[in-house]
Design a protein that fits this description.
- Strand 1 and strand 2 form a beta hairpin.
- The chain is α+β, with helices and mostly antiparallel strands.
- It is 33% helix and 8% strand.
- The relative contact order is 0.19.
- Strands 1-2 form a two-stranded antiparallel ribbon.
- The chain is built from four helices and two strands.
- The two termini are 26 Å apart.
- The protein has one domain.
């Protein structure tokens, strides 16, 4: 996730950036989230701390990670078009 407004935050429309920033900061202090930086993207991303080992395995040059996942078409990640565009993943628009 990232700390920018968008459709990926469905159900949290009432939360303002200041409140979201405070919540993310608290989760970072509690070590429930980890900040992740992605090449060529200025905005930091956050993952659950229990996913750090998996991330490290996936990006390790020593690993031959052979797994793919399919995201449901209505997943919140895909609903946030700004996020998907920033990650340079092709966007499928349906009418």
């Amino acid at each position: 996730m990232w700390n920018r407004s968008g459709d990926g935050w469905l159900g949290f429309h009432h939360i303002k950036k200041q409140d979201r920033s405070r919540a993310i900061s608290e989760l970072l202090k509690e070590k429930k989230l980890i900040e992740v930086n992605i090449d060529n993207i200025r905005t930091p991303f956050y993952i659950k701390s229990d996913q750090e080992e998996l991330l490290n395995r996936m990006i390790s040059k020593d690993q031959n990670y052979k797994k793919a996942s399919i995201i449901a078409p209505l997943d919140n990640l895909l609903c946030d078009r700004k996020l998907v565009k920033e990650l340079t993943v092709p966007i499928i628009y349906w009418l």
